[in-house]
Specification:
- With 421 residues, this protein is of the alpha+beta class.
- The protein has 2 domains: 1-116 and 206-416, 2-enoyl-CoA Hydratase, Chain A, domain 1; 118-205, PDZ domain (Pdz3 Domain).
- It contains 12 helices and 21 strands.
- It has helices at 33-38, 40-54, 65-73, 80-92, 104-114, 144-148, 169-176, 233-246, 264-274, 316-326, 385-393, 404-420; strands spanning 8-11, 100-102, 117-120, 123-127, 134-139, 155-159, 162-163, 183-190, 193-200, 202-205, 209-216, 219-226, 251-255, 261-263, 279-285, 290-294, 305-309, 330-334, 342-348, 354-363, 379-380.
- Strands 1, 2, 14, 15, 16, 19 and 20 form a 7-stranded antiparallel β-sheet that branches.
- The chain is globular.
- The N and C termini lie far apart (50 Å).
- Residues 1-7 and 11-30 have low confidence and may be disordered.
């Protein structure tokens, strides 16, 4: 089966409260939605087939996948809802939080998000594989969650008073999403502290790239903050770099902090803007097929680069930072990245629902498998809780001298510029 690279999803969660993408390829019989609604077993078998042919782990996490098919097709299902419940149970046997089922409304919401606009509070969530608890990968900047003070690595213990213990990501998303103007209360555990955050939902327009010029002792520095790898991100990044080049900047600080990922092709395209040559990423599929993405001698700039990363920098962020680090093109400053090295494709199903399935893992140019490990920065700079709260209360400080990690990145970049001169 052929999958377009433009449809591969690299996010910290297969269903997040931010932008993801849809791939049109799937295992489909030429049947109508009405057929699948009248025959719930057909939908269950369709999901089983997609997993059987495409799931990254040929052992299915040591599960007898053929026996699973017999088990679920031998049951009777009165309606679609029972089939949906069965599919979720079936996928749960894989013990993979990134492979998940979306009912038609969830799938529709995900497609709406792909347009660069979402309705909700603006957080990316995942499930901790060891503790089985819901965690915040990152709040999206300038969203209600960000303004309320939600932080990366916060643990969501309750949603509107309902415990999240054992809750699936899909179910959490349903509870957190809602009409603009309504509120949701998230109970957050941060270290030993428990706090309630009541947040008003809103319609959120997403802008992937922000940039500006910083004047330093070594001349003008280009600061670029990339918040997500959306379909629009490469275009916005290209425009930002070209604009900064026209202003004769001496180097770049690329801020990937709290960037949860997005589209695989977006990370590759952006890496090529900084790399003239070298490997960017290797994608390894179940059958051992390896696809390598490389630079294509079309870099927009060869000036020094420092990349800011933290525990909220995941997936596509790790591909970009790993590619530039391994090729000696950039210095990484901050804290270790999230550690999500798996690739999902998102597929439509016969009745209008959707399926996100882990189809591959990726390796950085040096062959590093960062899944659950993350990428360590060249220079570690931790933020205190007080620093993080200060930056979230006053987001205008992010990427300024009032931001300790940015300040250090600026120092390192000036050293790189002096060395190059």
């Amino acid at each position: 089966m052929t999958l377009t690279k433009r449809g591969l999803v690299l996010c910290s969660s297969a269903v997040v409260l931010s932008t993801v993408a849809v791939v049109g390829a799937g295992v489909h019989l030429p049947r109508t939605q009405a057929f699948f609604k009248e025959s719930p077993k057909a939908l269950i078998d369709e999901v089983w087939q997609i997993i059987n042919y495409n799931y990254v782990d040929a052992t299915f996490n040591q599960v007898d996948w053929r026996q699973v098919r017999r088990e679920y097709l031998n049951k009777s299902y009165a309606n679609q809802e029972e089939a949906y419940t069965a599919i979720k149970e079936m996928l749960g046997k894989l013990d993979d939080p990134y492979t998940r089922f979306m009912d038609p409304q969830e799938y529709k919401n995900m497609q709406i998000d792909t347009s660069g606009e979402l309705t909700g509070v603006g957080i990316t969530i995942s499930k901790d594989e060891e503790t089985n608890r819901l965690i915040v990968i990152s709040p999206i900047e300038e969203t209600p969650a960000f303004k309320a003070g939600i932080m990366a690595r916060d643990i969501i213990t309750k949603i509107d008073g309902k415990s999240t213990q054992g809750m699936e990501i899909n179910d959490a998303v349903k509870l957190i999403r809602g009409k603009p103007g309504t509120t949701v209360t998230l109970t957050i555990q941060r270290g030993s502290r428990i706090r309630n955050f009541t947040i008003e939902r809103a319609r959120i327009k997403l802008h992937a790239v922000r940039s500006r010029v910083e004047n330093t002792s070594q001349g003008k520095i280009g600061y670029i903050r990339l918040t997500q790898f959306s379909a629009q991100a490469p275009k916005e990044m290209r425009e930002a770099i070209r604009n900064l080049e026209r202003k004769n900047v001496e180097g770049y600080v690329l801020d990937l902090r709290s960037n949860p990922g997005g589209l695989l092709y977006a990370s590759v395209d952006i890496a090529r803007m900084f790399l003239d040559r070298g490997k960017i990423v290797s994608t390894v599929y179940r059958k051992g097929v390896v696809e390598e993405q490389k630079a294509n001698n079309r870099a927009i700039t060869n000036k020094p680069v420092v990349i800011l990363v933290d525990g909220g920098s995941a997936s596509a962020s790790e591909i970009l930072s790993g590619a530039l680090k391994d090729n000696g093109r950039a210095v990484l400053v901050g804290t270790k990245t999230f550690g999500k090295g798996l690739v999902q494709s998102v597929r439509p199903l016969g009745d209008g629902s959707g399926l996100a399935v882990t189809i591959a893992k990726y390796l950085t140019p040096s062959g590093r498998d960062i899944n659950k490990e993350g990428i360590p920065p060249n220079i570690i700079i931790e933020l205190s809780d007080a620093d993080r709260e200060k930056l979230q209360k006053d987001r205008t400080l992010i990427g300024t001298l009032g931001d300790p990690q940015f300040s250090k990145a600026l120092t390192i970049l000036n050293q790189e510029i002096r060395a190059k001169k």
